[in-house]
Amino acid sequence: MIRVETVRAGYDEGPDILRGIDLAAAAGEIVTILGPNGCGKSTLLKCIAGFVRPRDGSVKLEGRDIGAIPVHAKIRHHHMGFVPQTDNVFSTLTVAENILLGARHLQSVERGVRFTRLMTQYPSLASKQDRKASALSGGERQILSLARALISHPKVLLLDEPSAGLSPLTTHEVFSAIAEIRDRTGMCIVMVEQNAFEALGVADRAYVLSLGRVALEGRASVLLADPEMRHLYLGGELTTVAGNDRSRATA
Ligand SMILES: Nc1ncnc2c1ncn2[C@@H]1O[C@H](COP(=O)(O)OP(=O)(O)OP(=O)(O)O)[C@@H](O)[C@H]1O
Ligand SMILES: [Mg+2]
After folding, report:
1. Which residues line ligand 1 (CB under 6 A)?
2. C-alpha 19 – ligand 1 centre gap (Å)
3. 96 is a domain residue
4. Could you report the per-residue pLDDT of 159-210, keeping only the tens digit for each?
5. Between β-strands 205-210 and 213-219, what pairing exists: parallel, antiparallel or unpaired?
6. Which whole-number Å values give the CA distances from 246 to 8, 178, 220, 225, in the listed order?
7. Phi, psi for residue 3 in degrees, rounded to 5
8. Does a structural domain hold residue 102?
9. Can you give the pLDDT at residue 98?
10. CATH code of the domain in which 178 resides
């Protein structure tokens, strides 16, 4: 569904942040992107969404190069839903207004049908639909940002740290909601996460970035059992594995 091929990218005149990244994500799977702060996770997601243009390489959706299609056009054509790392809801708008922002391009009847369906799927939002988003808990805000992305029925859902700032219990609830979306819709979900072990518990496959390159990749279950992952995430040096046999963790 999504294929990132040898992408090099950075900001303005600055250095390359992504230094030759390959990534693939299929329909019906959750792919998680892991790695330390500043390694380029959000930049990679912004590249897939189209906020950052690759300097080299390509981003393809169903075989078609989408690097040059503007972000708003992708959303309008139901290609992609993007939930950014921060500021993903408008606090001064109500829950309903936030969700409907994702549906401005739809006919009003269709908008209403989809909104009603989302309210059935997410009763915690339904009971608060006329409240300001500022009155929601962190977990409810994440579900709200998911619902706003889902109302446009995207083929690909891009999530930047959906568990940021959440307690372990709420993280679990948000990840369950994401897994439910995959199982129900067969959507392709690409999710950046800091919470590596929780994310591997829900993802199908994972890529671990280090300094703008893929240091490890593989099936989530294989990576979860990989002592190298524990080493990396419990204080090890990611750079020591860059360049090692990357296929080792690939099942
Ligand atoms: N808009 C921007 N302009 C210039 N440099 C940027 C911009 N956004 C990010 N960077 C730089 O790109 C590098 C990678 O940032 P990125 O946000 O992709 O990292 P990340 O892996 O998502 O980190 P975190 O885990 O902290 O969210 C950092 O050095 C950062 O300073
Ligand atoms: Mg980030």
Report:
1. 11, 14, 17, 35, 37-43, 85, 194
2. 14
3. no
4. 999 998 888 888 999 999 999 999 999 999 999 998 888 999 999 999 999 9
5. antiparallel
6. 19, 28, 14, 15
7. -135, 120
8. no
9. 96
10. 3.40.50.300
